[in-house]
Write a structure and sequence with these properties.
The complex is a heterodimer of chains A (167) and B (112).
Chain A: E1 11-21, H1 25-33, H2 35-41, E2 47-48, E3 55-56, E4 63-65, E5 68-70, E6 76-77, E7 80-87, E8 91-97, E9 108-118, E10 121-131, H3 146-163
Antiparallel strand pairs in A: 1-10, 2-5, 3-4, 4-7, 5-6, 7-8, 8-9, 9-10
Helix pairs in contact in A: 1-2
Chain B: H1 3-13, H2 16-25, H3 32-36, H4 43-55, E1 59-61, E2 70-72, H5 74-111
Antiparallel strand pairs in B: 1-2
Classes of the chains: A alpha+beta (167), B mainly alpha (112).
């Protein structure tokens, strides 16, 4: 974990998703770094990221623009990443800065994607760490821990019960 | 949704003692004495943490001077957990599609 950008900031919110894909590592890496692939999968069901509007400079410092279009009403949701690290075919580090007014997201999130070979398959580990700018509270250096994740689960149950919100 | 509120929430949650206090309050209201009991802390130290939690809007305290039970205030916590959940869902949804896409293109390449 050399030169992890997170180490220079105050990690405040993070999570990890691990997936095993039935595909060789080189192909999974390509699926992340080739616009023709990205256009096929980026964004959850309900949005499309058209190839014609994607621009990706896959080099450290390069900008990726992946505008998502709502399939129903055509609303465009701009998504911009800055490519920080490219180690083909094992590792990608991207950061994303959130525009003012988008409210609920942290100011910057660091996305670290690692690809490990499992025979013919590939284990992808996707880690998100949100950074909040202008944090004055020194206690934030503690960051989030797994104990907080567990607490969050318990609280989610409490809070959804108290409002009757359906999940 | 208010970014400042979210930041206050995360700042308050960053401390393990305060997380322990919130976890206890998730089970029901409690007094300062009850909260201090399982913690290796003095009452004034616990009171200090309660003040941070109260200022962040994560708990409320009863009015009575002697008997001021603390209660969990769910709204800001819900916003904080919702943020993470939404972002995670965004990526989980994308990775479902990535998995399908990888499957699809490999099927194509073996046929051709």
């Amino acid at each position: 974990m050399a030169d992890n950008p997170v180490a220079h900031g105050a990690p405040t919110r993070e999570f990890t998703i691990t997936r095993v894909f039935d595909a060789p590592r080189r192909l999974v890496f390509e699926a992340w770094t080739d616009p023709r692939h990205i256009a096929q999968w980026f964004g959850p069901v309900g949005v499309t990221t058209p190839l014609s509007s994607i621009s990706m400079d896959v080099r450290p410092g390069g900008i990726w623009q992946l505008p998502m279009i709502d399939d129903v009403d055509g609303t465009e949701y701009p998504v911009t990443f800055t490519c920080r690290e490219v180690v083909e075919p094992e590792r990608l580090v991207l950061t994303t800065r959130v525009r003012p007014g988008s409210g609920t997201l942290p100011d910057e999130a660091v996305l670290t994607v690692t690809f490990a070979e499992l025979g013919d398959r590939t284990e992808m580990t996707f880690h998100v760490c949100g950074l909040a700018a202008s944090e004055e509270n020194a206690e934030l250096e503690n960051g989030w821990s797994s104990s907080f994740d567990r607490l969050a689960e318990r609280l989610a149950r409490v809070t959804s019960a108290s409002t009757g919100a359906a999940r | 949704m208010d970014t400042d509120q979210l930041n206050r929430t995360f700042a308050a949650l960053a401390d393990p003692t305060r997380r322990a206090i919130l976890a206890r309050l998730a089970e029901g209201e409690a007094t300062v004495n009850e909260l201090a009991e399982p913690l290796p802390l003095t009452l004034p130290a616990v009171s200090k943490h309660l003040k941070v939690l109260e200022q962040a809007g994560l708990i409320t305290r009863g009015r009575s001077a002697q008997w001021r039970p603390c209660q969990l205030e769910p709204a800001p916590l819900r916003e904080a957990t919702d943020w993470l959940e939404r972002y995670r869902e965004f990526w989980e949804g994308s990775f479902d599609r990535l998995s399908a896409h990888l499957h699809e293109i490999q099927k194509g390449s073996t046929n051709g």
